């Protein structure tokens, strides 16, 4: 395990639990991070530093889901006010509101940014055409309990959803039909795709499971010492991170499942973790109302993390010299 001390950046501003996070791709202006929070005010930040850029104001209830399109020009949010909203991520302007009949728990942009996927407590998935926003959405029904999360596959031909009915389901976008149902012994707590779109990551109970996104076969799974709420696989698939009920951020070797790091920084259960698109940092959101940025390689100069001692001393004392974020 690493002997260097992890010093996360704490991003304050929210007043309620932070329940979901999403990064953009790397753009000419860097990359960006959006947070969904029960305070109803999703926030946009610079992804590598956590610097606040703006708050999207307009929801009248807790925001449960948030997403950025790949070039960070648009944001989407889903909330307890029974709406999903699309925003201009450049100036914060609300572009469109899509009315639902129940709480919207998740949103996702298609890889090309032309469509918006929503999942709600109606147990229904919808796909809206962002070029024809007044057209009726495509609808997908089959889940028998509240939908927790849903994602587009990279080719846009399928969507993947997880629900309280202890299933993850794969759907064909064109026919609006269910292709496959994966059953789990407990309710899936999170759903994610690897950066290349080839692996589905599902957490349930104390388990983090990895599934082939084309064959829908389980690749491997690992048990954790406490209930897991969220997990994310590094872009190069060397490591994965998890967070859960015991307030601790874990890093594991993906091939072996060996625990590499365990850091306590939050003061409440961790609801969401995500790697940045370059894999240099990961973000976490918690019941404590904060989101934090952590270094993937502890002790590396990156973003706001700077050496506090000369390089030659650092090299001679690698085990005892942490790097600290700038004040």
Automatic annotation (TrEMBL):
Any one annotated GO CC term: SMN complex
Gene Ontology molecular functions: RNA binding
One GO term of the biological process aspect: spliceosomal snRNP assembly
Keyword Repeat tagged: yes
Database matches in InterPro entries: WD40/YVTN_repeat-like_dom_sf (IPR015943), WD40_PAC1 (IPR020472), WD40_repeat_CS (IPR019775), WD40_repeat_dom_sf (IPR036322), WD40_rpt (IPR001680)
Superkingdom to which the source organism belongs: Eukaryota
Keyword Repeat carried by entry: yes
Family annotation (PANTHER family): EUKARYOTIC TRANSLATION INITIATION FACTOR 3 SUBUNIT I, SERINE-THREONINE KINASE RECEPTOR-ASSOCIATED PROTEIN
Name of the protein in its database record: Serine-threonine kinase receptor-associated protein
